[in-house]
Amino acid sequence: MKSLALAWRLLLRDWKSGELTVLAISLIIAVTSLTAVAFLTDRVGHAVELRAAESLAADLRLSSSRALPEKYLHIATEVGLESAVMVTMPSVIFDADRSALAAIRAVTPSYPLRGKLKTATALLAAESETASTPAPGEAWASTRLLARLGADTGSTIRVGKTQLKITRVLSFRPDQGLQFLDLAPTLLINIADLEATTLVQPGSRVTYRQLFSGQRATINDFKPQLEALLQSGEQLSDIEDTNPQIRSAMESAGRFLNLASLVSVLLAAVAVAMASRRYALRHRDRIALLKCLGSQQAFIIRLNLLQMLMLTMLGAAVGVVLGYLSQEGLAWIAKDLIAQELPAPGAAPVFLGFVTALCILCGFALPDLIQMGKTPVLRVLRQDVEPPPLRYGISYLAGIIAVLALLQWIIVDIALVLGIALGAAITFIMLGLAGWLLVKATSRFRGVAGVAWRYGLANLNRRGRESVVQVVAFGLGLMVLILLTLVRNDLMDTWRDSLPADTPNQFVINIQAHEVPLMQQFLKDRQLQVPIFVPMIRARLTLINGEDVNQMTFEDPQGERWARRESNLSYSDTMQTGNSLTGGSWWPAGTERHEVSLEENFASELNIKLGDVLGFEIAGEPVTATVSSFRTVEWDTFKPNFFMVFSPAALEGYPASYLAALYASPEDAGKVIDLMRQFPSVTVIDLEATLAQVRDVMDKASLAVQAVFLFTLFAGFAVLWAAVQSSLDERRFESAILRTLGASRKRVLSGVAVEFIAIGLLAGLLASTGASLAAWHLAVNVFKLEYQFSPAVWLAGPLLGMLFVGISGLLATWRVVTHSPVSVLRSA
Amino acid sequence: MNNQNSEFALKAENLSKIVTSPEGPLTILDQVSLQVSAGDRIAITGASGAGKSTLLGLLAGLDLPTSGKVWLGGNELTALDEDGRAALRANQVGFVFQSFHLIPSLTALENVMLPLELANHSQPRKAAMQALESVGLHERAGHYPRQLSGGEKQRVAIARAYVVRPTVLFADEPTGNLDQQTGETVIEILFEMNRESGTTLVLVSHDMGLAQRCDYILEMEAGRIKTEQNA
C-alpha cells in the first residue's frame, strides 16, 4: 500500500516536472497509432464485409434443391437475426404472343437483407434504390427480360398459371454476382404468388434459399449452430465465399494493414525503449538517494514496477481515446470518399491498446529500470559509480518475445510473424554494423571543413555507441516510412490497374458460331469495342486415368461438386492474359496432340497430376486429353477464364457457343438493348453494378491503407523524436560549456547541425538500401506484385534523413543552445 | 549482527579500503579506527585525496571496507547486507552532500517530504513544511531545485536530513559548492539544528574554520588519521 501510494505520488510529480514527457508521449503515440489503425481497420473491415455481404444479399446464405426446414428460420429469429426466403426456378414466361426463359425469384418482403435493389419506372428510365419488393400480384422484370419480351412496365405477363403485372424494371440485385453462366434474366415476384403459379412441382429445378443477417457476433455464434444441423445437400455460404474480386482486394488490404500495424508496434517498441533508457539514466541519482535515505533495493524495484504499470495504464487509456478520436476524425474527413456511414467499431482495439502498451513498456522499459534499481548507493558520494551494465540481449529477450506474441495475436500467421522477426533481426544487425562502419568512416572527414564540422563530426565519433544507436533508430524509422510509401504506392497502383475505366462490364454469352461474325459487324457499326470471342463447350468429366469419376470419392466437398457437375471447357492456342503456368508446359501453336491445361486448385481438389489422362463426354461422344500443364488464374480481372483449357485439336469441331466480354459506357446502354433485340438467343449480363461494388470495396480498402500509412508515419516520428531526446541532456551540458568557452550560438548550432545532418545522411543511406530490399521482398513474396527498383528512393532517403533529422535535431536543441549557459551549468 | 548496547554513536575498527587500479592495488584508507560518542560533533579534514569521503561512505554504510568493522549505534554495519544497512540508514542516519542531491523533478517541499513518505510518516507535508520553515525556506516550498540558488538548495537538503530526526548526521563538504557568505549561513543553520536535535554530527570538510566549530577534528593524510585533536 505504501509503495503504491508513493509510486503514484512520485509519478504525478515526475509528470508535473516534465520528466515523464518523452516516455509518456512515445507510449501515447504508439498506442494512438496502433489503436487508430485497429479502430479504423475494424470499421472499414466491417464496412467491407457488409459490402461483400451484399453480394450474398445476406451475411449467411443457405441453399438447397429441396425445401428448407422452417426450424432454421425459427432459430435465427430466436437469436435475434433477420431472415428472408428466396425460391428460384427457371420458367418460360409469356407476354401476349412472345415468350422468354426467365429465372423466377420469389422473395419475402425482407429481401434483400444486405444491399438494396435498384429499379426504374420504365426501360431506360433513371434507376433508384428501393427498400420494397414486388407486392402480391406484381412482378419486377430485369432489363434483359423486358428486351427479350419486347415489353415494358405496365404489361401483364403469365407466369405458370397466374398473371402478374410488371410494375418496375429491376436493374440491380445485390446478389446478382458473377455466376453468369446458365443464367436467365430475372423476374422478381412476391413469395405469396408462388403457389398460384403452380411452378413448384416434383422434379422441377427449384433452388430454395434462406438468408440471414445480424450483428457480427450473433452471426459468428449462429453459423456453427446452423452447420451442426445441416442435412446433406444444404449448402451454407458466407462472405468468405463472395466473389473473387472483392476477396482479393480485402486480402491485399488486410495484409497491408497488418503489416502497418506491426510496423507501428515495432516502431513504438523502439521509441519506448529509447525513451525509457533516457528516463532510467536520469533516475540513477534518485535511486542512489532513495537508497541513501534507507530504501531497500526490492522496494525501489517495486516502486519502479508500479510506476511503469501506472504509466502504462494511463498512457494506454489516453492513447486509446486519442486513437478513437483520430480515426473518427479521419472517417469524418473521408466521409465523401466512402459512400456510406462506417459501422461503429468493436471493443477489441481498446484491449489491443492496453496489451500493446503493457508489452512494449514492460518488455523494453522495465529491464533498464530494474537495472537502475541496482545503482550503488555510493553514487551519492561519487558520480562515476554506475549500476552494473545491462545485458541488453538477455534483458530485451522478454520484450521481444512479448512483441512477437502480440504480433502473432494481431496477424494470426506464425510463418509471417517469424519471417518478419527474422527480417527485423537481420535488419537491426545490418543497420548496426553499417552504422558503426559509417560512423568510423566519417572521422576521416573531420579536417575537411571548419570548426563546426570538426566539432560535429568529433561528437559523432566520440559518442560512438550512441551515434550508432541513433543512426540505427533514425535509419529504421526512415526505412519503414520509405518502405510503407513504396508498398502503399505499389498496392494502390495495382488496384487502380486491376480495374481500369474500360474494364469489360458486359458479358455476352450463348453466342452461336454463326452469330459471331454478325455480332462483330453489329458492334463495329455502332462504334463499340469488338472483343475476342471465346469458344465454350459443355461437357461432363467421366474418367480420370480410365477410372469412372462417379465411383471415385473426393475429400473436399468442393472437389466433389466440381467432379459431378457439368463443366465449361474452352480451347486456345495461347494462354489467357492473367494466367501463369505453375507446372508443365503450354502446347506449341497448331499442335495435333490432345492436351489440357488445368487451374491449379481445380487439379489439386480432384487429385489430378501432370500426365494424367482425362475423359469427357461431349454431346454423347467421348473425348480424352492429357494434362500437360497447371495454371494459376487471376479471377479478379473481369475476363472470361476457365478451369480447363484444351489444345484446339482436342475440341475443334464439337458444338461450341461463344462468349465475349466488352465495355459499354453508360451512354451506350441503348446500343446494348439493341444488341439483345437483334440477337434474342444470346444472353447479355450487365456487370457494371458488380464492378461498382468491387470499386467501392477497393476505395474503402484504399482509405484504410492511407490512414494506416498516416498513423504509422506518426509512430516513425515518435522514434525519431525519442532518438533526438535521448541525447539531449548531454548536448545541453556541452553547449553550455562551449558557450562559456566563448563559442557563439551560431557556431554551437552549426556543430549540432553538422552532427545531426551527418547522422541523418547515414541513416538515410541505410534506410534507402533497407527499404529497397524489403520492398522488393514484400512486393514479390507477400503482395505478389511486380517490383521495380526506383532510383528516386536512393535520393529521397539521404535527403529526407538530412532534412528531417537535421531539422528536428536543431529544433530540439535550439532551446538548449539559446538558454543561458549559467542556468544549464547550475542545474547540472 | 552485534546488538550490544554501546555508549558510542559510531565506532570504526581498523578500516581499510583497497581498490584495484590499472597500476595495481591502491590503498585509499589504511587501518583507520575511531569512536564518536552520542551527540558529539566531529570534523574530518585533510587535503583532496586524503580519504575523507571514503571514510564517510564507510562510516555511513554507503560502502563496505576491504577489512575492518563499523558500528552504528549498537549495530555492526559491516555485518549487514545492503538491505540491512539501508534499513538502519532509514531509521538513524541523515545526509547532507556537497552537491545537494535534490531530486530535480520534485519541488523543495516534495524533496523534504520524501524521507518521511518512505518512512510512512502520518503527516509528511506538515512535518516537511515545518522543516522548511526552520531553514527559512517555507516561501520557496513550491520551487524546483533549478529555481533555487546553491545556498537555498543546501538548506533544503539540511531540512531533508533533519526532518526524520536522525541519530547521526553525515555532512560531506556541505559548503564546498557555496560562496563563503552563503556557506556561513548554511553552516549556522546546520549547527543550530544539530544543537536543537542533539544529533551526532560527522562533518567532512577541508575548511579548517568550519572544522574548528566541531568538538573534535580528525586530520587525514594518505588514507590515515594524521592527528586527532579537540577543537
What does this 3D model show about the protein?
The complex is a heterodimer of chains A (828) and B (231). Chain A is an alpha+beta fold and 828 residues long. Chain A contains 25 helices and 22 strands. In chain A, the strands form two sheets. Chain A has a six-stranded mixed beta barrel with strand order 2-3-9-6-8-7. A six-stranded mixed barrel of chain A has the order 13-15-20-17-19-18. The model of chain A has no long low-confidence stretch (mean pLDDT 80). Chain B is of the alpha/beta class and 231 residues long. Chain B has a single domain, classed as 3-Layer(aba) Sandwich (Rossmann fold), CATH 3.40.50.300. Chain B is built from seven helices and ten strands. Chain B has a six-stranded mixed sheet with strand order 6-7-8-3-9-10. In chain B, helix 3 (108-118) crosses helix 4, helix 4 packs across helix 5 (150-162) and helix 5 runs parallel beside helix 6 (180-197). The longest helix of chain B has 18 residues, at 180-197. Mean pLDDT of chain B is 87; it is low at 1-6. Chains A and B meet through helix 1, helix 8 and helix 25 of A and helix 1, helix 2 and helix 3 of B.
Number of strands of chain A: 22
Structural class of chain A: alpha+beta
Roughly what fraction of the amino acids of chain A lie in strands? 15-25%
Helix content of chain A: 40-55%
Identify the CATH homologous superfamily of chain B.
Answer: P-loop containing nucleotide triphosphate hydrolases
Question: Cα-atom Rg of chain A, whole angstroms?
Answer: 34 Å
Structural class of chain B comes to alpha/beta
Care to count the β-strands of chain B?
A: 10
Q: Please state the overall shape of chain B, judged from the principal axes of the Cα atoms.
A: globular
Total of domains of chain B: 1
Per the principal axes of the C-alpha atoms, what is the gross shape of chain A? Answer: elongated
SSE string of chain B, helix = H, strand = E?
Answer: EEEHEEHEHHHEHEHEE
What's the CATH C level of chain B?
Alpha Beta
Walk across the major sheet of chain A and give the strand order. 2-3-9-6-8-7
Task: Please outline the major beta sheet of chain B.
Answer: 6 strands, mixed
Overall average pLDDT of chain A: 80
CATH architecture label name of chain B: 3-Layer(aba) Sandwich
Please compute the radius of gyration of chain B using only Cα atoms: 17 Å
Uncertain segments of chain B are 1-6
Strand content of chain B: 25-35%
- What strand line-up does the widest sheet of chain B have? 6-7-8-3-9-10
